[in-house]
Task: inverse folding
């Protein structure tokens, strides 16, 4: 992120790789690059790289921020920003 690798071990399921496919993108201003937490089964920005828009999401289309996991009920919890994002340099 912003030229710095993220340590994603704190929030990805144990044994999950950050990505099984290599990619190198520069996110245009006003857009987002999204990756699912279930990386092996997520059809996220990586799955849309060859399509119009290149996998980027216009930030204007975002209507909210995840703050809780409620289903399945046995995994319900509040969602906080992982520590790994605190030391990311500004673009």
Result:
């Amino acid at each position: 992120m912003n030229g710095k690798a993220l340590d994603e071990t704190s929030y990805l399921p144990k044994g999950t790789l950050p990505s099984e496919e290599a990619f190198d993108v520069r996110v245009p201003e006003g857009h987002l690059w999204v990756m699912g937490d279930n990386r092996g089964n997520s059809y996220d920005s990586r799955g849309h790289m060859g399509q119009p828009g290149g996998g980027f999401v216009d930030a204007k289309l975002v209507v909210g921020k995840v703050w809780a996991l409620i289903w399945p009920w046995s995994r319900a919890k509040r969602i906080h920003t992982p520590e790994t994002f605190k030391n990311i340099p500004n673009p």
Remarks:
- The first strand starts at residue 31 and ends at 32.
- The chain has a mean pLDDT of 87.
